[in-house]
């Protein structure tokens, strides 16, 4: 039977989620094996929040869906399920997960738009295929690398980190490159409107104390940029020795000179020397440049699939 998240099933949920995580660690060698306590903190909070559904038979857990965050307004609702936010027994796994989603979506739908976001480990091909059949599409991937892995071998010059005051002083130059990046994302085949990409938002982000900003200069002109941030988004990356690499952009007239690779290697070296063991990145899959570049140096550990359910009466 279906029931709302219940603490009496917490141990079984954690065991199911942790078992799937251990399989992921075996298939993605860059992942560090964490203890079950790392994953249990998030799961216990999600159970307490009550956003999700369990499928049980007596005292046995057969499958579950747990939402880590839910927000919305009068016009739409958003539900996000992390890599530990789903699970089932091996037998009839696809049937159980499918029934759980059908039942949960039925409870959520009230005539308003709903956005579902699910994250899956790469090894879970059956579940990814299942959600594809349920009209979900891949939006982005999260990828990881160890900082002892080399990107570019050779001499690196002309790259340095800008302090916040210099970012302020050279903001017109900085924003020009950031704006070029946002314009690129609006074109075919990406077509991402990026309404959130305002100048104010980017400026606040780049001046944030947790953000690092690096530039490639030629004769005093900034021709390439890359940023990095120490914030993690799930238990895998939310650690002091992990860093997120964000946007990277090189002016079109300077491409083909391995400048992006040099920028990434420079940031990698700076952070490694500061004790950072891993870098991770999240990028959209509609961008062919991003797919080719990041996937060459990073290994995928999570796929994000989304589906919009539109309003109808």
What does this structure look like?
This protein has two domains: about 1-140 and about 305-310, 3-Layer(aba) Sandwich (Aminopeptidase), CATH 3.40.630; about 160-275, Aminopeptidase, CATH 3.40.630.30. The protein is built from nine helices and 14 strands. The chain has helices at about 10-25, 35-50, 95-110, 125-135, 165-170, 170-185, 200-205, 260-275, 290-295; strands spanning about 1-5, 50-55, 60-65, 70, 75-80, 85-90, 115-120, 135-145, 160, 210-220, 220-230, 240-250, 280-285, 300-310. Helix 8 (about 260-275) links the parallel strand 12 (about 240-250) and strand 13 (about 280-285). The longest helix is centred in the first third of the chain and has 18 residues, at about 10-25. The protein is globular, with a radius of gyration of 21 Å.
SSE blueprint and pairings:
Layout (H helix, E strand, L loop, with lengths): L1 E2 L6 H18 L8 H14 L2 E6 L2 E7 L2 E4 L3 E6 L4 E3 L4 H16 L4 E8 L4 H9 L3 E10 L12 E3 L2 H6 L1 H16 L12 H8 L4 E8 L2 E9 L12 E9 L8 H15 L4 E7 L3 H10 L1 E11 L4
Parallel strand pairs: 5-7, 12-13
Antiparallel strand pairs: 1-2, 2-3, 3-6, 4-5, 7-14, 8-13, 8-14, 9-10, 10-11, 11-12
